[in-house]
Structure formats: C-alpha cells, structure tokens
Amino acid sequence: MKKRDFKVVLIGYSGVGKSTFISALINENLNKFTYVDQHQPIQLTPEIFNHPECNTTLIDTKCPPNQIPDQVKIAHVLLLMYSIDDDNSCERLKMFWLKELKKKEFKQPIIIVGNKLDLMGKENDRKYCRIFIVIKQLVKDFSLKWEQSVHQLNFRVFKMQLIVLKDLILYPLAPLYNLVNKTITESFKKALTRIFRICDPDGDGVWSDYELQRFQKKVFKKHLDQSDIAGIKDMIEEEFKDDSNKKKYITLQGFMALQKRGIELMKIQISWTILRFFNYKDDLTLDESLFQDDLIFNQEAGQTVELSDFAQQKLKSIFELNGQNLTQTQFDYIFYPVMYQTSFPLLQQYHSQSQEITLIQWLALWNAFSFFNYKDAYKLLNYIGIDIKMADAFKAQNKKDSWYSVQKIVERKVFHIGVVTKNKKKILEEQFNNLSPRITIINSKTYVISIYDELQVQQQIEQSRLSIIDFLMIVNSYCFQTAQLIPITFFDDTISVWTQITKIVDILYSQNFGYSNFQIQQLKQKNSVSIISITSCIALIIGLTTAGYYYFLCKPFKKSK
C-alpha cells in the first residue's frame, strides 16, 4: 500500500518566528542543531509523529500583508502563528487571518500557535492573561485548536494535537460510521460487500478459515492461527448476540459486524487499511487510476470487443449464488456495491415477457454492454467484486475491412442490428416496451437491436455507435448513403421486428453475409491490395538477395598484401 501525503502549512506574518519554530521542532526530535532554509518544504521523519505509513511535510510560507499564501490550498492542517508579545499580531488573527480563511471557505483544521512567550516577563502576567482571554474567545468563535509555544520549546502537547488531527484526516470516521445511529454507513457496507466477494474465490458466499487467513495475509501480511480465528468469530458472535455465525465460516454480515466492532473499539485504522488496500479513496469510490488502461483494437475497421471466457465464468459464479433465475431484487443486489450511476442495460431490456432472466440472458446483457463500451463494463466488473485485469476481461474480435475478415464474422458472439424507420415511437411502444436498444439471443449468439429515426440515423451513421453496426434494416422509401460497408436490407413496418430479426440471422450466416455484390467487390479489392503489397515486398527481398549474391560472386578477388 503506497504511503499517503500529509502536508502541514505554517502561516503568519513575517517576524512571528515561523522558521525558528520549525528549526526548534526538528532539533528537539533529532537532539542536534540543524539549520533550516527559510520557506523550503521540510520532510519530517516518521518518528516525529509515529506514522510510518505517511509522508509528513512541514511547509513554511512567505506571507505578505493582507494576502493568503497559495500553499494553503494543498494543506491538510494549518498552523496559524502569532507573536504573544505583540498586541498587533494578536489583533490580526481576528481582523485578517481567521476572517479571510473563513471567507474563502478553507475547511482544513487550524491550530493557533502562540510564539515568543519566553519574551514576556512576570510583570507582563496581567497583559498575558488579557491576550489569553482574547485568544480563548477566538477559539470559541471560529472552532479552532490553540497551542502556545512555551519556554524551552516543549512541543509534546503540540505534537499530540497534531497526531490526533492527522488521525482524523488519514482515517476519517464520517464515511464509515454514523455516530447518531451507531451503525456503519451504507457506503461502507457497499465497499465491504465488494471486498468480501473479491476474497471469496470459490464464490460460495461465505469465508472459510482458509479464506480468512488468505485475507489477513494479503492485507496485513500477518498469519492467523486457530486461536486468532476463534477470537475473531467470538467477537462477531458477541456483536450478533447469538451463535448463528459460529465456528464453521464467516458470512458477509459477520464481516460487517467485525468492522463495526473494530470502529467502536477505536481501531478505525484497521478499516482504512483494508479499504485502501482494495483501492478505495476517502469518499469510498474506487481510485480512477484502476480504469485507465486501453485495449488496442481498430473500431473504424469494424473490430469489436467481447467478454473473455474467464470474465464470463466469473459472472456465472456471481449469478449462480442467486439460484437458477435472477429476479429484479437479486439483480439490484449484485450491483449493490456500485457507487456511481451506470448505463448498464435494465433487466427489462432483454427480450422477455417475464420478470426474471436466466444465466444465458444475464451473460447476454454483459456481452451487449461490453460490445458498446468495454471501459464502462470493466469499471462495473470491478465494482461488483470481480478482481480482474482488463487484458484478461476482454478479447478483440476480427476486423471487417476486407472480404477475408468478413468471412470470419461467424466467430463473433455479439451482433448489432440497426432498424431505421419512420415509426420509431410506435415500434418502441408496441414491441420494445419503450426501451432501445433491446437484447435477445438466437442460436447462442447475442443480438442488440437499436431503433433509429430517419433523421437520427442520418446524423449518427458515421459516428462510433454505428461504425460497429453489423446490419441495417431500412424502410423501402428511404434513400440511404454511407461511406461504411454495412449490409443493408429493407424493413417492413407491417411485420414484427422480431420476425425480421430472425431472417437477418439467417442472412448473416449465408454465403455473402448480407453484403451486396458491389460491397463484396470493394472488400475483395482491399484484400487484393494487401496481397499485391505482400507479393511486391517478397519480390523485392528476392531481387536484393539475388543481386547481392551475384555481386559478391563476380567481384574480383584482391590478394592481401
């Protein structure tokens, strides 16, 4: 797990002792004198704040009059320093610093540091008490922390405050636990559901002792013996107040109960260690860097992306946990860990009159989704608990930019058919339940049917969504032109769309796959060009080789001196 950054920014007018304060803090911990360059970021050693998993940087700033330094924007905690022996310094806390920070809506915690207390003699005790009262009121008005720098620079209390703040920032409680209801949050439950699924490789919906040990070794790099496992199960049973979870395995509810108990025992760091190991950010969404990979394929040439057999097997395991058919409730539960709005097809988009779908239909939904946008599909796979690399999740299918490639179209598992009609609204209402595209399966292949209006298709035909279309059905009266080589047939508004789709399936498996003779000739020409190019290259290589052979054969031999 990579280290997290923690930036402490020191602000205050020139002359209040910011640089001296930093030097004193470092020298006290190192037990030696170290000169600190003004305004240079200082990387603090882990020992100072006892956070080996965190990179702590202390940043001094130049603070011109009436100006907030830019470094405040990157701060996790602000140290606002003033000079105790200066009445004006105390006054500027209220009139400028706190007022401006509040006005600009900076949300970082602020610790007020009173410096130069050692410059005030006993005769100034009364004056010091007045300043103390003023600062105490500021702390109350602005909800601040106040630490005063005492004589001989004893930083123990100051460091304890900073450590507490660091814990609150590094391990925030609010995203995980509701203090009012004393329950873990819905977002935390979603994250734990995903993590539990990832660490359940056999897909049986529970953790065996072996799976619990693997989880512990994977995340914390520690081994659990049988007494440790028994202790964990006892803690879960205490939370449930019964022995329903006892001894055999750990359920998802048991895993959630364990995390809740840990938080209530002030061990929130454990929960965040787990979350960050599985790439969760502080808002409990997954780190977007997980989804930055790209597959190399040529969409303009009609090449498509389909789910790999490995990914389909993972999806099959998730489905089978819910029985032989998937209801809407079970469908929603599978997607429960997802923390964003997704365009994944609805259960109703499958061509079926029932409110349930089978395993074949479930896989068809995923095949269709991956066909149009494999990146979104990959992100969704990760969120529902399938830990898989992008290269393992998908495979690129053949291109369609030559006759040779088109002849391999039967190897595809997903086909996209577009219907162009004047009666789009009528068809959507009567035959598609107002949902487009619709998905169906014929002869173990997935077919995605999109309905387009005449005007709509004219605008979209050259765009990416139609560049991977496999067949177009167009009303007889419509004159259609496209630079893309797409098989086209006529669409009859009086006949059921599904009846016509079945006929197209037969055409796709015929000898010419629905292409016109003119389109076939164009595709063959692309083949010819490539063959001529290859032949030319071979001839050139043979020619050069032969010429070189005769050159050396006929070249006069020179005797060496």
From TrEMBL:
Spans through the membrane: 529-552
Record keyword Nucleus present: no
InterPro entries: EF_hand_assoc_2, Miro-EF-hand_domain, Small_GTPase
Main location: mitochondrion
Residue ranges of every copy of the EF hand associated type-2 domain listed in the record: 222-309
Alphabetized UniProt keyword annotations: Calcium, GTP-binding, Hydrolase, Membrane, Metal-binding, Mitochondrion, Mitochondrion outer membrane, Nucleotide-binding, Repeat, Transmembrane, Transmembrane helix
A Pfam family annotated for this UniProt entry: EF_assoc_2
Family from the record: Belongs to the mitochondrial Rho GTPase family.
Listed PANTHER family: EF-HAND CALCIUM-BINDING DOMAIN-CONTAINING PROTEIN 7
Protein name: EF hand associated type-2 domain-containing protein
Organism in which the protein naturally occurs: Paramecium pentaurelia
